[in-house]
Amino acid sequence: MMLTPSAALTGNRRSTVSIRLLCALGEEFGVPQARCLAGSGVGAAELEDPQAEVSAVQEMRVITNLLAAVGDVPGLGVLAGQRYHLTSYGIWGFALVSSPTLRSATELGIRYLDLTFAFARVTLEEEGGHARLYFHVDHLPAALQPFLVERDMAAVALLQRELFGVEPSRRTVGFRHAAPPDLTAHEAHFGVRPLFGATHNYVGFDAALLDTPLPQANDHTRRLCEVQCQTLLQRRQSNQGVAGQVRSLLLAEPSCMPDMEQVAARLNMTSRTLRRRLADEAAAFRGLQDEVRQALAQEWLAGGMLSVEQVAERLGYTEAASFIHAFRRWTGTTPGRWCRTRH
User: Fold this and answer.
1) CATH superfamily of 241-340
2) d(CA 29, CA 95)
3) What is the pTM of this model?
């Protein structure tokens, strides 16, 4: 079973801050708030409630409405992303600000990425004195990928600027989609001309920046914020349903996935109860394992950074042949053929 965008995102709860920012952007282009919210199940009153939460799918509907109403505006995703200041993220933003270095802030930020408004999955890679944040969006609807990746990458560039108070040097930016006719918004926000048609979506910078002390570092505040991040994440996950909680536990340990007994114990129930609760949600433990493994396998293979053998190892397979057999069962083809059809 393939992990579809709706299955991957339904349980991802978030505050309404992001939808407020998107509606404000729409109003600048003459789009009424009601049109942005149409069909999302989000009302104007919820946008004013600081405790209100919505699903990622609801926000995606707002984005779909915004794009349909505004049309093909070059750099619209960048214009959206530059609205996501550190203060927009609540406790997650405070945790980053109080971190000792950009490296620790980045690692913490990725660890609790589900507390943000990001749709892209983010990974950090270092090589030859250069660091890159990769933004993976293959799990998202193709029509929305350019906007979503531009928004998330622009937001990260803004966070770097606000964390240091200055623009990082030697920045590079790459997008997989084709270049728009006007790059004004991109160049103004990123400070460089991005590479379009790139192999990956990325923001690159000098790796030495990762270990530069942050000006507002405070270890006590950081630890306090991280505890609050953990609490908030657990609360949101508890509202995902049992299947969503199981997916989260499986995603946390892809190379050594816990079995049903272990997952049941972590959820404070017996394996029999877990099986029954999953059945009530039309799910099965084996199917969820396959969903998670397939989604991660396709994400890592699509990124082009890992070989089939490395993906197999990361997913806990002792032999690449076992992984290839499983991949064929999921998709009807081999990993190699699947990759070739994407290029």
Assistant:
1) Homeodomain-like (1.10.10.60)
2) 34
3) 0.71
